[in-house]
């Protein structure tokens, strides 16, 4: 799916797997006092580090609206990058004008439950990013307390790598590392409680912070607490010891790894196009997550 070709007044600067960034025409190359950036969420969906075809209609709107809702829930805990939702008509609903931050090259992950790369690490070492955990935990186990398990940001197409806290100290300094950990766990704690009230388990989440060159403040950027950056599980179906049902692109992953896709994940070949029903069911999952968490419905 191509990047939205031209947005009047904005220059395209970057595209990740899901989002496209624009700066106002004529902006300098690095963030300076008062600069803004337009963060546009596309309908692109990625799985196993591949961007898939086709996209999920409405996904960009869901990610953006859910992030905006969460930023509000968290506003008293941490400053965020949102400036306005007054955006070009072509990207209405799926873009936000944000303060342009100097991003820290650290994925700030909080986990309250054990799964994914955390579980894989635990099975080898009994710890996650150097944090020792009790014996006997299984896929989906609740941890004794939430933990900060940072990762270094990988280049496009590469896996992020879990790293010990000391590595973050080496990259951003001891004070900033401590603040990132504290803010990440505070955001997780708040969000986990809100989700729980709505029958949803927030198993883990990934945040990205940056420095606001105008205020100097460590500021929450990127998207927050979406099904792309977090694992949300329906609480009534939670059962440690197996993979959990989840509000995300589970259908995409399940289909890609099933015999019906005919795709060999270990091969270099790109994944096949997604069938219509997988696209529709994935779209429903994203909308369902939005509605359960916010209690509002979304027309996309
Ligand atoms: P990946 O495809 O692995 O997710 P990515 O994280 O680089 O790579 P996206 O998430 O699609 O790609 O793009 C969002 C990018 O915008 C990220 O690089 C993120 O760090 C950056 N970003 C988010 N908010 C801001 C901000 N306020 N100022 C500057 N950069 C930002
Ligand atoms: Mg990203």
As for the number of domains, it is: 2
Percentage of residues in helical conformation: 25-40%
Going by helix content, strand content and strand pairing, the class is alpha+beta
Would you state the CATH class of the largest domain?
Alpha Beta
> What's the CATH superfamily of the largest domain, by name?
ATP-grasp fold, B domain
Write the CATH architecture name of the largest domain.
2-Layer Sandwich
Q: What is bound: which ligands?
A: adenosine-5'-triphosphate, magnesium ion
Q: What's the number of extended β-strand segments? A: 18
Organism: Cellulomonas xylanilytica
Keywords: ATP-binding, Ligase, Nucleotide-binding, Purine biosynthesis
GO molecular function, one term: ATP binding
Protein name: Phosphoribosylaminoimidazole-succinocarboxamide synthase
Question: Care to give the gist of this entry?
Answer:
With 300 residues, the chain is α+β, with helices and mostly antiparallel strands.
